[in-house]
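This protein record is not my work; I was only asked to verify it. Would you go through it and say whether the fold makes sense for this chain? Here is the record exactly as it was handed to me.
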Amino acid sequence: MGVVNTAGVRAEAEIRARADGRGGTALPVLEGRGPLAVRRTRGSGATAHVTLVGAMSGPHGGDHFTLRADVGAGARLRVGSAAATLALPGQHGGRARQTVRITVAAGGELHWLPEPLISVTGSELAVRTRVDLELGARLVLREELVLGRTGEEPGRLTSRLTVRVDGRPVLDQELDCGAGAPGGWDGPAVLGGHRAVGQLVVCDPEFADKPVEPDASADGAAVLPLAGPAVLVSAVAPDALRLRRLLDRAPVSFAPASVSSGAASA
């Protein structure tokens, strides 16, 4: 599932989670090779835990990584990563791509909580994440982007996130920032000079009866209810550590006990 050629590395990883009929979650498919290694780690209760491990550095320019996660009815899955991901310049140049495809069936639950993605000077990466949920599915998805390591300018980073519930779009937004991005990305209407930006998407059927109120009172964070029912928490911060703290403090009923996974650092 990992192929190297002159245009870069093509690699895929796939996770399938299914209810095991005994109150737990089985992983009938857990595959990844090359740069994308996936490992089952110790879980808790009915939730299966999977960790993405960077077996190689990257993505580099020209690479294309694809991750797929499919959660069946009654299954509960939590996916994290062992460390932050570095988007790096490639030997052959060009844009790297990272594609994430997520599906969750009614009654299934997924916590997608990777560590931050860091855009290194000279890199160019396009991230495309698409989530398809059936009615009755539950989701916690966190995305954290850091523009440059300490003391360096970022590369080019484009991230598009689309979430659909029952085939209807709930969220479809794109952020394009860093070297070569259209003007204004670093202005007050977007990042306002910050170098870490993130979002937390929470989908929970209970929000239909207990809607979350909009909230922009937190310094650097805002809560926006979505159709679905779902909630989007967006935040900007000077660094990854403060960004994680903002997202962890989000006033979303389904999020706090599920999301926190330690402090991030970059």
